[in-house]
Amino acid sequence: MKKTILFILLSAFLVYSSCDKEEENGDSTLHLEFDFQYENNNFIINQVYTYPLDYSFKIEKLQLYISEVKLIDQDGGSHDLSKIIFVDSDSDENGITTIIPEGNYTSITFSIGVPQSMNGTQDPDFEAALYDPDHPLSLSNAMYWTWNTGYRFVLIDGRINTNPTEDEEFETLLSIHTGKDYSFRTKTLNLNYSAIKDNAGSIMMTFNVEEFLAGENDIIDIAVDNQSHGTNEGLANRLSDNVIKAVAIK
Amino acid sequence: MTNRKSFILLFVIIGLSILSCDQSTVELPSERSWNINLPDHFDQLIIPERNPMNEAKIELGNYLFYDKALSKDSSTSCASCHLPQLAFSDGRVKGIGIGDSIGMRNSPVLINLAYSPAFMMDGGVPTLELQVIAPLMHEGEMGFDLFELEDRFSENKLYQDLSKKSFNRRLDAKAIAYSLAAFQRTIVSYESNFDKFIAGDKSIFNVEELRGYELFNSDSLNCSACHTGFNFTDYNYYNIGLYELYLDKGRGRVTEDNKDYGKFKVPTLRNVEMSRPYMHDGSMASLEEVVEFKMTGGKEHINKSDNFKSFNLSEDDQKALLAFLKTLSDTNFVSRELTRIKE
Asked: Which of A69, B2, B320, B333 is geometrically suited to a Cys-Cys bond with B212, CB 3.0 to 4.6 A?
């Protein structure tokens, strides 16, 4: 009899302790997703696009870091979503799922790039080799500049065809890798109340890839200005300014 | 067969089985800490707290240093560009990596790295643990991925055992980086004739070498303004007017400050006799050529250091200076146990 009672109590405890913590604490699941667009269509790696300066080009790789993502609630309270996210435009697995308290959120704040505290440039104790393969800052993502102890923030690699008479000659290399602390940009975007539901919400962050290079206020002539590897601060800053402006919430 | 014979046969079979057990099991070094007795004029080695030295770790780093399996196509090891007999340089104008790709700069010596506050000729990397990652991953050097290396070595019993002893973990990215750094810290050169001279053996220098030493320290040559201290470097960055226009920005590549264009870290002069060719781009084939260049005071460049001025030297004094530089050669360190090539 004692054993039976003990068994029942133990079972009840196990069931109770395995209950979904969301239900217990009023938390909600939130999906943060990323979407890349070009000319109002899904952006496709290696697709040939016509650049506003009348030459064609294609992007072979587009990757970036988003960091310090926070939701701001209607009382001005800040809720951390993620410290650092690695986004590969060619991946089907972009996005994160996290738990936040239920409530009404008015805005989202985020940065493009790796915060100084994680970027190693000032920290002699920085440990790039400690990150596991599935960590956003893992060396496996090939975003770490081994020669300069820091990460690429936005990586765009591609090819440009500046010869309109030759369709297949993408002879000019496009390779702009921003980084170093001066490339770090932060933005806050308003959220529509309907963007987050009480129990399961999602936020879609959209990147307008066309405006990364051909920004609203600054069209980079990529036939001429097409190389930056932690160097060429001017070009890196132009791209960084364009990218942060090219992010919106769908 | 009688029972007695069967027993003997069984005994022999068992004995042979025992004797034929895996002979590749080596006796591993211990986790004992590693020490070195340096002469009084040397500072103590700077060892980071997070990567203390022990014999097993150094042994692991030693094996890895010479292992071509560290490169993507298993053609290139660290020692491919850092040969012990050349003071851990390679005798080439620029390093050559996988696929015969030519490196950006001349391969530097790996001597007394424990004292260096920054790594690469432009000082872009602050620690040796981070520096080892650079050639491992660079597509023009060894071109590999640290995590793929973990897979490649997952069945290597020796490495796994050494890693267990060193770090109490399987060989992973950190163990690879840390053990290579630890091994390189053991590459210490301190037994040259110069060191013996400083330690008190004044008879070890001949007249010519003494004259060369005097010239080296003279205000007119000003060598010791930058090549100073027991390691013959102040670890600072200078533009010596090698070119009027530098293709390689040097320190400026890291800082992106125009004032740093053409500046490179002062290299040690220890074993300089063995580490030709010279300069960041390997553009000078001999020490004689270097001395002749230094006599000119270099080309005009806005960032050229004020330490660098022209001077005159007679032929005899040039020979004396070279004779002194050769007193910095120490071949003992390449024969020391922990720097030998592992079979």
From this structure: B320
Fold of B193-326: Cytochrome Bc1 Complex; Chain D, domain 2 (1.10.760)
pLDDT in tens, B90-137: 999 999 999 999 999 999 999 999 999 999 999 999 999 999 999 999
- Which residue from A minimizes the CA distance to B252? A231
- Put simply, the answer to whether B125 touches A128 (Cβ < 8 Å) is no
- In this prediction, the answer to ipTM > 0.95 reads no
| Chain A residues within an 8 Å CB radius of B130 | 120, 126, 128-129, 146, 149
What's the burial of A11, exposed, middle or buried (CB within 10 Å: 0-12/13-18/19+)?
exposed
Inter-chain contact B145–A140, Cβ cutoff 8 Å?
A: yes
Q: Is A133 on the interface with B (CB under 8 A)?
A: yes
CB contact under 8 A, B126 and A126: yes
Comparing B55-189+332-339 with B193-326, is the CATH topology the same?
yes
Contact criterion met (CB < 8 Å) for B145 and A149 = no
In angstroms, the CA B331 to CA B233 distance is 20
Q: Which of A123, A137, A213 is nearest to A175 (CA)?
A: A213
Chain B residues within 8 A of A147 when measuring between CB atoms: 120, 122, 124-125, 134, 138
Residue range B61-78, pLDDT digits in tens: 999 999 999 999 999 999
A180 chain-B contacts, CB cut-off 8 A: 256
User: A4 falls in which pLDDT band (50, 70, 90)?
Assistant: low
CATH class of the domain at B55-189+332-339 = mainly alpha
CB contact under 8 A, B124 and A127: no
Q: Give the rounded percent of residues in chain B with a pLDDT score beyond 70.
A: 88
Pairing of strands A56-73, A48-50: antiparallel
Prediction pTM value: 0.84
Given this model, what pLDDT does residue B6 score?
Answer: 65
Query: Looking at residue B5, what is its pLDDT?
Result: 65
Cβ-Cβ contacts under 8 Å for A117 (sequence gap 6 or more): A123
Domain ranges of chain B: 55-189+332-339, 193-326
Q: B30 exposed, middle or buried (CB, 10 Å; 0-12, 13-18, 19+)?
A: exposed
